[in-house]
Amino acid sequence: MELATKTHALLDYFIGILLMILPLIPGVEPDRSAALIVMCTGLFMLSYNLATDYEFGLLNVIPVQSHLMLDFFAGTFLAFSPWLFGFADSISLPLVILGVYHMVTSFITQIPTKA
Does pTM top 0.90 for this prediction? Predict the structure, then answer.
């Protein structure tokens, strides 16, 4: 199974925005440090999405392969952050799901070949 970069890009923007608003959703209510980490991770993801050289990138300065490496590391950070920073009791499941999603998509996204 391969994921096209066009689909990957759209999903990345969605996930980045979701991370930015996740702490604001009623019922989620993570502690202050968890909210800051989640929102900053979303901002970081949105930033490198905008800079990636793919269909929905604006700056086109980061190669797709580098973007996928950033996705893997950002996903790993996101998945383990509840335990690294001590807020696993407040908001771990969404972060693990989104983190694992980023790790998996970093491996299944089709890297375009240059002609």
Answer: no
